Amino acid sequence: MAGEHPLLSTEIVNRGVTPTGPDAGSPTFSVRVRRRLPDFLQSVNLKYVKLGYHYLISHGVYVVLLPLLVVVFGAEVGNLGREDLWRRVWEEGTDYDLATLVAFFSAFVFTLCVYFMSRPRPVYLLDFACYKPSDDLKVSNAEFIEQARKSGKFDEASLEFQSRILKSSGIGDETYLPKAVMAPGNCATMKEGRAEASEVMFGALDELFEKCRIRPKDVGVLVVNCSLFNPTPSLSAMIVNHYKMRGNILSFNLGGMGCSAGVIALDLARDMLQANPNNYAVVVSTEAVTFNWYTGRNRSMLIPNCFFRMGCSAVLLSNRRCDFFRAKYRLDHIVRTHKGSDERSFRSVYQEEDEQRLKGLAISRDLMEVGGHALKANITTLGPLVLPVSEQLLFFATLAWSHLFGNNNNTTTTKSKTKTPNKPYIPDYKRAFEHFCVHAASKSVLDELQKNLELTDANVEPSRAALHRFGNTSSSSIWYELAYLEAKGSVRAGDRVWQLAFGSGFKCNSAVWRAMRRVKRPATGPWVDCVDRYPAQL
């Protein structure tokens, strides 16, 4: 337990005046103990640094060799005068026969062909759409508790617990919930799950196809991810059937992958595009609130009720070189981290039945800690790919120093044993990215991430705004945040965007985009009628 003390924080909560009981008329207080993210930038594992440099070197070999060849050739030519160079080309060159020249140019052309055919094709993001439900599905925090009480599915203790969670959640009063969750009776049915999935997926895809002006039959790859609702036929089959897509489409349906599945789906779509040139890929990310609505008394399973809301995103990717001129972004990097081999990480977000055999999603008390370790591994691997050389040199030097000489401070004296180790250099990720889209899980998670990564309020503004306006929309939240940046007119040519998502497993995944042009404020989208209210409402 002694090692866990730095991960705990306490808070004194004023519960007000008790109206009944032996303490009636007296003010009461309670002490709340919270877990927080570990200070993961203070302890870095070298194997993740090595993994990041492995990615960098394996993909940058051509960038290193080409300048080297140019330097060698330039040095050779620089030693020759104009007359010597002219004599070698026109006089001595006559000594070469036709076969030698043909062989040389054949080898040169063959090398160029191998290079251009082996290098990965760039993957472009043409556009994306985020579904905005109708206003009749809006629910405020007060209405949430009132409707939950009227539904008769919760006792007073569960209602009070959910009310306390909502007050500190960072969620505003304009999020969206399916009507079925507050209706009497069981809402976690296949019928209601399909109805919600159809509404959000088809709504996002209709907008996407209209914005991009392409036909559904033009799409060659379809990847759908939804963690908790996986019917048969699959959600991807529902989309193929609804839009009458072509018969040879490569369709995939990812289930149980958690809130980070959006980046996993991007990775799969990218691989499919590399194997299938001149193609379009659509990635759909959503979550079904209805099918996993919990009506029991287990508090760890009541937490998802308070955070998860309706939402869906649809993204159109292309590897066609002619789309270079109309693309919004180019995909630069994807880095995935999986901590499922650790038992605590594996069970930190776990779907199971409670004592009354009611199905729900249990959130472990260890979630913040295991999430911090996954984040540490992911950003350490990502660092060598994106950080400027100056940041990498400082970071690597201090990291090597701490690993080589960090134990020299320990002596046999009691005083030296309690000495605080030197604080390593924390890389400034603000120098690697202009924009941050961090998964909007909860206010407390965003607070800890902002503190550990030393981000400014402006850096986490998109995440806080998305959480406040739309709630936790699971794997699609990072797209609502990018839509917020576009609605603000913040994205300019050359800007780098970091999408960071984390979820059950435990997994932490990053996607890095580069803006191809200045993105104009969209005429449609989820933020059109409310973006001017932010960040004032946060």
UniProtKB/TrEMBL annotation:
It comes from the Eukaryota. GO terms for cellular component: membrane. One of its GO terms (molecular function) is fatty acid elongase activity. Its EC number is 2.3.1.-. InterPro entries: 3-ktacl-CoA_syn, ACP_syn_III_C, FAE1_typ3_polyketide_synth, Thiolase-like. The chain crosses the membrane at residues 53-75, 96-117. Pfam families: ACP_syn_III_C (PF08541), FAE1_CUT1_RppA (PF08392). It is found in: Membrane. Its main location: membrane. The keyword Ribosomal protein does not apply. Gene3D superfamilies: 3.40.47.10. Pathway: Lipid metabolism; fatty acid biosynthesis. It catalyses: a very-long-chain acyl-CoA + malonyl-CoA + H(+) = a very-long-chain 3-oxoacyl-CoA + CO2 + CoA. GO terms for biological process: fatty acid biosynthetic process. Residues 434-514 form the Beta-ketoacyl-[acyl-carrier-protein] synthase III C-terminal domain. This is 3-ketoacyl-CoA synthase. The lineage of its organism: Eukaryota, Viridiplantae, Streptophyta, Embryophyta, Tracheophyta.
